[in-house]
């Protein structure tokens, strides 16, 4: 079984979450143009909205789609799961490129043990329905997790899952992912850690800026940003349960451009810095200190500011765009060609210098 990282080893692995909890968003056809204008070729939905999937036919943009949490019980029925896959997946293929299905979002950070118990059966049924259609090798099945499912995350090597869910729920899911080759989806938000403890956590450290970083004395690995540290904490937690070949996919990460007075760090400058440095970090093909050869695929949260999201002000201000299509701040997903141009020019100069040197030497 091919592992997910083998599928994403080439190209810039950055996508954007297309949330729709708002009453003022542009039509899906306009969103197509918007994503194309910023050179984004990957997107993630929290449902399988047919209007969106139809609008993106023949665009080359890939989608990870989701199921509603309320559908988990129904998806535990194989007949319903088969019908769901036929209606929401097969009907849109191959014109719309669907590469993954997220069965439930952040279920294991809730207290609903009944819903938790239905996640894996629902995943298994969706996978079986895909397999019956011959689609199980091209579309993965997973579930998305909040970082809060870890009971320990520092130092990264001590990463462990909450004991209340580790053996009962997470380990069987890891077994499923290991067998099917699917990624483990994790939502990573250094902002939350900084907001909760701004006097002890360096802003430079969470924004990928230059800092002294932190040392994991257990491994000797040095971390210069919290994103990598959180990723490796999850890898460590997975390894602690006996699985060592499962790849992480960052299903959400972002920084709010506005927040309440007590949401320290939520502003446009920090949001712009976080996203710019994150993109630079990922497009440099650097993995994490623990997994240096694996470049994570990430999905930024989110495409738009969504005015109907509940919670603090920050929840409605994670967008890269305002609903009218204007940027909240300047950003780019395309690496500057300056560094490549400089490298090419330097290489040419070196070659010319060597040619002149040898001509002089042998003349």
Automatic annotation (TrEMBL):
Statement: the UniProt record of this protein carries the keyword Signal: yes
InterPro entries: GH, Glyco_hydro_17, Glyco_hydro_17_plant
EC number: 3.2.1.39
Entry's family note: Belongs to the glycosyl hydrolase 17 family.
Catalytic activity: Hydrolysis of (1->3)-beta-D-glucosidic linkages in (1->3)-beta-D-glucans
Any one GO BP annotation for this protein: carbohydrate metabolic process
Transmembrane parts of this sequence: 343-362
Keyword terms: Glycosidase, Hydrolase, Membrane, Signal, Transmembrane, Transmembrane helix
Enzyme class: hydrolase
Superkingdom as given in the UniProt entry: Eukaryota
Any one GO MF annotation of this record: glucan endo-1,3-beta-D-glucosidase activity
Protein name: glucan endo-1,3-beta-D-glucosidase
